[in-house]
Structure of BAR domain-containing protein:
Amino acid sequence: MGLQPLEFNDCYLDSPSFRKRIRAHEAELEKTNKFIKELLKDGKTLIAATKNLSAAQRKFARSLRDFRFEFIGDAETDDERCIDASLHEFSNFLKNLEEQREIMALSVTETLIKPLEKFRKEQLGAVKEEKKRFDKETEKNYSSLEKHLNMSAK
């Protein structure tokens, strides 16, 4: 079952059931905020690990590309040429793979991480700030009411 809707008219009555629905909405917002925060943390960790893997793969590809057989005798054999060509081809494959991985990581950052960070800060952050402001004003209101109720009629 989803959250009960909040009706504007109910805020005037300020009934216990309305307060209960408000608390449920606040709890859901907090849960969503924590989930997004954890998702962002995991995403950034994944991207950092991907960059480390990419750097290691690129280094390995360079090593494969730079490897050269010292042939025995006067000329390279067909097997040596085949192995050399295979290593060079595999090196190019790894290089292309890492270029695509880099594009994917950038795409994930631009299309997922940054919009989620923006949403969390601007939307959920604004709601939290408004709640703090509301709680502060409510506290001032209650303390004023208490102060006036405690005054004696002279």
About this structure: Residues 15-150 form one domain. The chain has one domain: 15-150. The helical segments are 10-13, 16-66, 78-149. The mean pLDDT is 90.
